[in-house]
Amino acid sequence: MQPGSITQPNWIPTLPDEADNKQARRITIQAKPAAGLWTRVTDFIPAGRKLKILVVDTPEWIYDAAKAACAPDGAPLSADAAALLPQAVLGCLIGKVGGSSADVTTQVAALTGPIANPPIFVFSVGTYCVVQVPTTISGALFLTMNDKTENFVKHSGSLQVQVYDAS
User: Fold this and answer.
1) Are 146 and 83 in contact (CB under 8 A)?
2) Which of 22, 74, 106, 121 is most exposed by smallest CB count within 10 Å?
3) Could you tell me if residue 6 is inside a domain?
């Protein structure tokens, strides 16, 4: 290896395609999930795992029928402090590891003790991301559109993703 070169991890499909184990299965993510706020992609991601998530088509989905459709990278300059992931733009694809399909990820109040939610890791995906899950977090992998919870009824459309993890 030459100095300064970067070695790519060996990406393995998290959910292999039935016809080709080297390809990841395409998972459909609805802008408005049938139940809850999040679509479960897989049951368990171990702590510290590196994930690569990519949108495999170039769709547009709608986060508000009164506004133009947007790509999985969201609507530019549209962040909202009340969104599931406040530091990401509205309409973008976001993910989380841990928790449940009904989680609201914005902090309403700091909870401690037995009623506190389990730790979760929330991150922006967009059209493509590579992310390392913290070593203190594990659980199911979920994806959804970033928006305020009350706006999910206005969503429409879907996209397909593939998920890989590094060995």
Assistant:
1) yes
2) 22
3) no
- Residue 36 domain-assigned (yes or no): yes
Residue in this structure with the two tokens 């979920």, named with its chain if needed: 142
For 166, the token pair is 């590094």
Query: Any idea which residue has 């990820």 for tokens?
Result: 105
Question: Beta 93-97 vs 121-124: how paired, if at all?
Answer: antiparallel
Does residue 60 lie in a domain region?
yes
Q: Could you tell me the CATH number of the domain that includes residue 68? A: 2.60.120.430
| pLDDT tens digit sequence for 86-102 | 999 999 999 999 988 88
2 within some domain: no
Q: Which of 157, 160, 97, 93 is nearest to 125 (CA)?
A: 93
State the virtual CA torsion across 134, 46, 95, 123 in degrees, nearest 10. Answer: 10
Integer-rounded Cα Rg, in Å, for the chain is: 16
- Is the model's pTM score more than 0.90? no
CA dist 86 and 93 (Å) reads 13
Q: Are strands 121-124 and 158-166 parallel, antiparallel or unpaired?
A: unpaired
